[in-house]
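Per reviewer request, we include the raw input and output of the structure prediction for the construct analysed in the revised manuscript.
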Amino acid sequence: MSTNAYAAKAAVRDMIKGLPALSGYQVTWGYPVRNPERRWVFVGRIQWPDSQWATNRSREEVFEISVVVNCQLSGATSEEVERELERMAEGIEDGLKANPNLGISSVVTSDFVPKEMDSFPSDRVYEGQLDAIVRVKARL
């Protein structure tokens, strides 16, 4: 299969790992191990909603890489957890703005699209999760 998606997924994961805003967070390719750390980010599912021939010899693909951010804070409120998730999302968004082609010459652009956020009490802590996608447009 000819795609830039796997290289882009690795680039997104590596970019998130290097962000100062997310230092101290476990960042993984796919779901974390059975007992994830209290704060984690995983770069997961890839979907291809669109692919078109740009010319008779090249194709443009659009794909989406899911990014899930989870945070648990003891003694916190729902609002505090959601503000932490917002801070982390801003860090990811800023990282993509600084390098929209992810260091891959065939990537035209990428953007960070938050989808949903929720917070809830969990075993004497407050936990929250942000689901987002990184939408990528690339040439093959």
